[in-house]
Amino acid sequence: TMTAAQRAAFTGTLTAPGTANLAVTGSAGNQLVVGGAGSDTLNGGAGTDTMSGGAGVDNLTGGSETDTFRGSAAELAGDTITDLTVGESIVVTGADLTALNGQSAAATIATGSGNLNLTGITGASGVFSAVLAGGNTTITLTAPPVSFTLTAGADNPTLDTGNDVLTANATNVLNAGDTIDGLAGTDALNISAAQTVTLNATTLTNVETVNITAGAQSVTTHDGTVASGQTMTVNGSTNTSAINWDGSAETDGTFSMTGGSANDTLISGSGADSLKGGAGDDVLRAGNGSDVLSGGAGNDTLSGGAGADLIYGNAGTDTLLGDAGNDTLYGGDGADVISGGSGQDTLVGGAGNDTFTGSASDFNTDTISDFAVGDSIVVTGKDLSALNGTAASGTIDISGSVATTLTGITSGSGTFSATFAGGNTTITLVAPPTGGGGGDSGGGGSSGGSSGGGTVVVTDSTPTNTTGGDRTITNNGSTAGTAPIVQNTGNNSNVVTATLPASVSITSSGPATATIGTSSVETLNAAIAGRNSASTQQLTTGADTFLRRLSTTTTLDVRTIIPTTTSSSLSSPIVITGSTSSDGTVQSEAFVVDMRSLPTGSTLQLDNIEFASIMGSSTVTGGNGDNFVTGDENSQFISLGVGDDTLYGGAGADTIGSGSGKDILYGNQENDLVFGGTEEDTLYGGANEDVVYGNQQSDVIYGNMGYDTLYGGQDADTLYGGQHQDVLYGNADADVLYGNNGLDTLYGGAGDDVLYGENGADILVGGAGNDVLKGGLSSDDGSHDGSFDVLSGGAGDDSLYGGLGIDWIYTGAGADRIYIEAMNGFDVVADFDVSAGDQLMIQANLNGQAISTAADVIARATDDVDGNVEIDLGGNYVRLIGIHSSELNESYFGFY
């Protein structure tokens, strides 16, 4: 017999042996309390105890503190747990009960061998989390969400560690005197009225999401608003009033902000932020950190601040400012003004007549990827009129020290016009007159010719090994020149030429006779392996994929191409041109091009070349033909033109672009930027954090691994997020978006969209149009861990399906339908409006219950402590914020 002092200190095992019906009571220690074969009554007492009843019909009481109840499905069948509380767990050994995950708590749990009874537990007690590990299911009671409506006074709500929801539905109820701490969990503040406030250190903390659906906003945050390493999502996509959100004080957290249809101003702090303007003439301004800014529709002004930023103007006449850091700026549609600022920037104007502007030093090492007739370069504070009338080239000396690269520009592109006025120089491209020509050379020896008005000397020498197809050509002249590099036998008279800038040589080696069948495979793979690239295996896989597309009778010219130069930079691209385009049924080319001896960023242009394996950091462009291009581990810019192309970026941080044609683009490893073109493309981000744009026509886009940002573009697209926390934008037209795994954010945009959250706690925003939103599972392994989805229908008549878990639903404008399916879990509807035509659509005889009329549903309705109606549908719970049970009538419900 233990003394009272001994019992208070005991931390061992208390066991009820044998088959007798015994009562065992623990004390203040942390004990394992084990029953025997009889019907035992076990009480853990104080302390953190583990209770196991064993065989028989047992009565289990954990006592104070957080306890665990454990047993097999058969042992727990018929047992009663008298005091299960939030945070306590039941471990069912040898059984998979993950179907319980995300379900509202209930008074019984079916173990598969019978029912486990839970005294005092109802749907209002919380939600079950059920996780399978090691063959055992751990069922934990998690807290139900807490709802709180802000008032005009100094609010200090008592929240908990669950997923709480705060509502600001009156003007200026969010004020500096509030003390709102969301604690743990994923909390949301829903604003539906105008707010003007400057937050202090304790006004709003540990709140992860702010949803703005109505009202003009002027909010200035504090550094304490977002916790260190955390992200606050500010979603105003459905708001029609101006949002002015100033997060510039933030030093150690990040913002993900989306504006609405008005003229918004979104300002972030020092983190790696994401700012999206939406419709309207928006101002987006980021601070330090590698930020992503997207203007959306309207005439926007976007400023990246310090850091390596990605800035997209999208539609409208936009102003893009990269500021400090190595930035990538993409103007999109419209006549945009683009300034990279300091750093090594990549500038892409997009459609429209664009202006690239900055000081001379700003243009140091920059690349303008699509400079064309109609575009302008404005250099402030420097007279460059000496460039007027000079031949166009791929580099231009603006700063006087380091050249600026103009991708795709050659001497054949025309001439530069340069005008100095008002202290600034404006440089434009003047198209060449119709006509002209160039000098070709072939065979052995040397040949001279003319190109662009200059004298060209091209030396063409054949090595003594005449059994091979080896050839070296060198341009010793001052302007570009052309000579053949492939004149094989047995290749259907195919001739391939190379146009070389001045001071460039090319060595071309390979069989003198075109290969066929198995010989093609062996020859191409040997050519790749012979260059000793770190990406040999990946490049060989790409080659095998290309070869499988060829006819068994196709002849193949295989070449290893090694360009070299004595110059520190190239003024124009190396151009390799096949004689005719081919569909692979008769004749093809497969080139292994090693650019590693050239200056970084040198440009290679491929016309009518079916396959190229590229090694080295370079820019690869293309014209005619269906091209298949693979890159190695270096960072490359690959953008081809007419034809149905297949591009693999490889292991580097690549920019992959599509022109016209139905293209297939793979970013592969590292953080890639992938652009679709003017037709129906298939785009893959690959591993790491990618940004993928569909552009025109109906594209299919895959984020794959990493934290990706996907943009559908202008037509009806299909987007798949992949394995991690992705952000998907359908943009224009009727799109289909799949979040896949991870905590995803999906924006449908304009059009009648379908959004599937799938695994993970997702945010789905329909936007304009009649959208369908489906929340899906609530954890990546499908185990429904108690996390929740947020669904926001936006404008239009939407259909919303919460799915499993705890879901927060915002119907938005229009007559919306909220579908309640079997075992959905706990749905909370924040803005249900029966006068606008909203309805709860309930599956007939849901969960085996006799539910087929509005009266059946109303009979199951009660009100929570805040006066919000809560409906128990036999395993599903629905809460309508701001609506009392007495208001319910037939118009609230529909059945299917």
Automatic annotation (TrEMBL):
Where composition is biased (Polar residues), the residues are: 458-487
Per the annotation, which location comes first and is thus the protein's main one? Answer: membrane
UniProt-listed Gene3D superfamilies: Serralysin-like metalloprotease, C-terminal
The region called Disordered is annotated at 432-487
UniProt xrefs under PANTHER family: S-LAYER PROTEIN (PTHR38340:SF1)
* Protein name, as recorded: Hemolysin-type calcium-binding repeat-containing protein
> Where does the chain cross the membrane?
none
- UniProt cross-references to InterPro entries, sorted A to Z: Hemolysin-typ_Ca-bd_CS, Hemolysn_Ca-bd, RTX_toxin/Mannuronan_C5-epim, RTX_toxin_determinant-A, Serralysin-like_metalloprot_C
Tell me, what is one Gene Ontology molecular-function annotation carried by this entry? toxin activity
